[in-house]
Amino acid sequence: MTTAGPVPAGSATPAPAATLLEVPETVRSGLLQAGPLALAGLLANGAGAVITILLARLLPTRGYGSLAQLNGLFLVVSLPGSAVTVGVVRRVAAWQAAGAAAGRVQGWARRVYARGAVVASGFALAVLLARNWIDDRLSSPGAAAVVAMLVAATLWVLLSFDRGLLQARRRYRTLATNLVVEGGMRVVAMLCLVGAGLGVAGAAGGVLLAEALTAVHARVAANRAWARPGAVRGVGDTDVADGSPRGGAAVVGERRAAALDLVTALVAMALLAFLQNVDVIVLARDAPHRSGSYAAISVASKAMVFGALALGGYLLPEAAIRWHQGGHAIRQLAVTLLLLAVPAGLLLAAAVSAPGRVLSIVFSARYAGASEAFAPLVLAMICLSVTVTFTMYLLAIGRRWVAGVLLAGSGAGLAATAAAHGAPLATAHADLLVQGVLATAMAVGFALAHRARLAGR
Fold first, then answer.
1. Helix-then-strand count for the chain, H and E
2. Other CB atoms within 10 Å distance of the CB of residue 107
3. Single pTM value for the model
4. Which of 179, 199, 231 has its CA nearest to residue 47?
5. CA nearest 162: which of 89, 227, 247, 235?
6. Over the range 87-101, which residues count as b (16 or more CB within 10 Å of their CB) and which as e?
7. Which DSSP letter does residue 245 get?
């Protein structure tokens, strides 16, 4: 039977998986594929920075603090979404490599999404019933804001499932559009509702509205990406080559592997989030009077990490698809690192040449107290961006040991930043040391993972 492979950027019809590796690949073609995602990530991060600065001026100090608390809740509850994306891409890539028809993926996606929607609805109902209890524990301004933010986080998990389907189909431009929709709707909805006098509840409601609209856009786009007239057939657990029923052991083995991939990705993403924020958490504990100025350099320097995660939407499916077909995505990795190098170089130049001026212009002079730590923290986040990039690649090819490496790095990061005793410059230097060693370890692991495959070529 004819295989149903991924769709190259700009192509209207899927290319056979078996011939994908025969298509000439250049850095230029990679830039054309990943460029829209890089631009979308830049726009989304820029929108996030704008809304952060504007809300700091529109909300009272206590209200802004409560919003930060709610954002933390959002990040915690939505964290499984990133793992779901990894799991979807790996499973679909394996099916494609084995010759599965698009109809099987589409039918499976509909069933899983329906189940996920039921779970999300149950979680939303539980949050609604427990809203006052949660609000009391957080000391936030209102239960409505808590409900809105937690429900928005559950929608983001469902959204991540559809983004995984778009990645597996290599619809990078559509994925980029979805990122822009999310960032743009957040800015518009949050500013309108806060400007209407709804305060923190309005900001949380804006996030909920933005995620709902973005999730609808992603659902429609994913359905279109995998729709093939007449292709929907046996979507149960059948042999992908000829449609015959498979043995129970094969089904159990596949599900066990998918579960392990999901758990590994969840742990890895949680540890990456911890590595991104451990210095801020420790410094705020040890020197709360310096936390504001350190948070300013943190916000500025860590935008690159979000850029690396956005570009993971390109690297993850490329690595998974090509690895299953006996190849590799080293050129795609180089494209990703090249796209990250441009903003990294510009930010580092600004942090070295005029750190105080940059912080004063963006945040105000009162947040420039930790300007001496700006450059080393930027370097640390460049290293973490490299770690994120290698992590996405290694998860895509099924290397579960990455979670152990990240766990060791997280422990080292916690110990090193705690030893700085709240001094901004010492904290940034400690973070740089750990992040540099961790990025090097990931690079070595990447090289070892490819040694056998490259030697056989």
1. 16, 0
2. 18
3. 0.78
4. 179
5. 89
6. bbbbbbbbbbbebbb
7. B
